[in-house]
What does this fold into?
Amino acid sequence: MSISKIKVSIIVPIYNTEKYLMRCLQSINEQTIASYEVILVNDGSTDASESICRDFIQNRHQYRIVNKPNGGLTSARYCGWREARGEFVVFVDSDDYIEPNYCEALYTACVGRNCDMAMCGYNLIANGNEPIGSYAFYGDKNIVTNVKDDYVKALISSLPKEIYNIPAFLWLRMMRRDLITSECFVSERKVFAEDLIFDLRFASRIDRIAVVKEPLYNYVINEGSLTRKYRKGLWDMYKDLHGRCEEYCVHENVDCTQRLNSLLIGGMLHSLHQACLLDYKSFSSDLAAIRGDACAKSVMHSVGFLTKDFFALKINYRLAYCMIRFVPSFIVYRFYKWRQTK
It folds into this structure.
């Protein structure tokens, strides 16, 4: 296939997903777009993933497999991007699957509306193949032109009663390949929600975003996925995320103080939920680390108990704020342990 004719590069990072991989590959093979390439990045899999890929790509010339030592999701995406030759790129996780018109609808939206990025809705899939919800964004909007106010702010953190709440998942987006830079790729082993950093850095290079209402991506809730495991040092990763977002806002002159506070309090809440997967001793150690942290204290002071900024937080964030500031650790542990059963 001539490089000049490739419209879309589909990049698939793969690590030990033999259970789901064939469904993902078949969904890619059913794409309706006329010209695309598929880059399968085997990130040091130790199961049958590589052999599944090799068997599948026989006589399919638009596919190729790249093997690399295990380095994590971001390193695999980066490797795929370096190999890509298409005008646009998409990233598809190997335990998920896409609708047949995923690439065509996003590409048509980008080209037809003169945009450098398009985003679509998605389906949430549980128990392997059970749809439990569909999500779309931006109401009646088909194009976002005020990227800083209508996209960046909604990415960093959502506040109650807002119209827009935009997830940072890369797989919802098709992006112009030549506008992506190596600085967009930040390892998930260093910072939580690495997709958010990617999205922010890419957003600084674009002026228009096309919106496709259809749920074209199927996100599978996988009990073994990275997002559903205890991650040691999660609080430190959230602080890193907060610092990078703050640096971005200063550089781009975006006023997001309230949202950055909300982001970090959300990180405290997530860290508590994760710590509850462990025993009480480990939980209390994690909670003590948050309570004693200078960054956490600064945000708590900035928000202020029962102030306007406090009531601007989501209800569960307000509850976490109060738990962290005022409630004995054992009660906090028992409460969030109970919440996990609901």
